[in-house]
Amino acid sequence: MTDLPTIQHYVNGVASAGTSTRTAPVYNPATGTVAKNVLLASTADLDAAVAVAQAAYPAWRDTSQARRQSIMYNFRELLNARKGDLAEILTAEHGKVISDALGEIIRGLEVVEFALGMPHLSKGEYSENVSTGVDVYTLRQPLGVVGIISPFNFPAMVPLWYFPIAIAAGNTVVLKPSEKDPSASNWLAELFTEAGLPEGVLNVVHGDKEAVDALLVHPDVQAISFVGSTPIARYIYETAARHGKRVQSLGGAKNHMLVLPDADLDLTADAAVNAGFGSAGERCMAISVIVAVEPVADELIAKIAQRVKGLTVGDGTRGCDMGPLITKVHRDKVAGYIDIAQNDGAEIVIDGRDISVDGDPNGFWLGPTLFDKVSVDSAVYLDEIFGPVLSIVRVATYQEGLDLINASQYGNGTAIFTNDGGAARRFQNEVQVGMVGINVPIPVPVAYHSFGGWKNSLFGDAKAYGPAGVNFYTREKAVTSRWLDPSHGGINLGFPQNQ
Ligand code: NAD
């Protein structure tokens, strides 16, 4: 055990051990073994990283747009060229299969490409002669040091949702990734240094609640970007806001797919399986409930079950469809919902505990699991399970399905499957969810739109990336200017009026 590598922080352009000797194990979920340990920062370690970011800020803020853009471009090129290396890191620590790991990197690359347009995106506005001889213009300026806290399930993509935009806009960053799969963040920060990013602009501090809390209250941190589970997202939002920071705080989800009787059931079944079991269901945009408007349920379930039986589960490096879950604790918690479903009267169509695995038997395996006739009062329906578990709820009408979705505490993503354009249009208008798919099961907006749910899936009003991201990481300054001439003279204590 003592020979295992220890993942260090990355501060001021170099690996840094900090002062804390606390560590957490980082598993290879496909073998169930501890592969590395990661340092868990103390408050002093976090404060030291913020001090570095704060010191790097003035020079980075004043670096020309052209220079910043050219470094971003180098980063984009390096990331694209070496994404295969990063995918291997993701698979080794998260467990997701290589093709899926590449997918998340490519979605993250989209945001880097979007951030390349920062000179255009952050342009101000100019109004000439708003009053005689007076002009008004706006500037968008960076905030300073911003903190980013990310979840385990997208160890590359979620940091990439945030730091490219923050940095392109002239901010400096302290990133606190998930302690469960921390290496991707170090890899990305090292790559950015190689691309020419000055030391101290992107710092990675590993840790748990102690590091997060230190970031949330630090007076030199201007903004916090968070993605994770709903209880923590709420805590982050409230704590950081109380300490005077801008906050974008994205939480958990329970995403429903509404299937109308006219839908193409083969294509719908394909989409349900892909969106339900991809990344072993550990996606905030995974479909976890299918709301089948009768009479389609029996036929749809048969088609889904047939496809699920063809899925291969195993080591993500071996070309399987689905990998393991992140930890044994999480695997056991998800498997526990199979017992809950049974007790609450659901039908177990496929039990994920009965699988053969292409991999080490000690990995954190759970196969795809399918429940029918799930009660909407059951924890299986109400909780975010975050695993390869798909529940079917049968309803009689569109309205009953819509009401169910709208009653959920979550509002991240949803999808309707139908060939009826009028029904789809009505759904997009009536559903209380932030991201809607029409025959698209995982409607993650492209990088030049913004990502974010409603209700307990996002706290506050700041979405991630796209125009909302630019807005979040810059603040507008309005300048009113005149070049004095005699017509501006005279004493008048009244409130200035334009003339
Ligand atoms: P998590 O909330 O456990 O952890 C997220 C981050 O918060 C990690 O960096 C972790 O170290 C930190 N953290 C955990 N407990 C903390 C505490 N008590 N105090 C302070 N910081 C704490 O989430 P996770 O398990 O890593 O990720 C899965 C969750 O993230 C799911 O709920 C999923 O839906 C959600 N998620 C949401 C989105 C979205 O865009 N809405 C995207 C991806 C994941």
Automatic annotation (TrEMBL):
Top-level taxonomic group: Bacteria
GO terms under biological process: L-valine catabolic process; thymine catabolic process
GO MF annotation: an example: methylmalonate-semialdehyde dehydrogenase (acylating, NAD) activity
Domain (Aldehyde dehydrogenase): residue spans on this chain: 20-479
EC number: 1.2.1.27
UniProt keyword terms in alphabetical order: NAD, Oxidoreductase
Catalytic EC class: oxidoreductase
Coiled coil: none
Gene3D superfamilies, per the entry: Aldehyde Dehydrogenase, Chain A, domain 1, Aldehyde Dehydrogenase, Chain A, domain 2
NCBIfam families linked: MMSDH (TIGR01722)
Protein's recorded name: methylmalonate-semialdehyde dehydrogenase (CoA acylating)
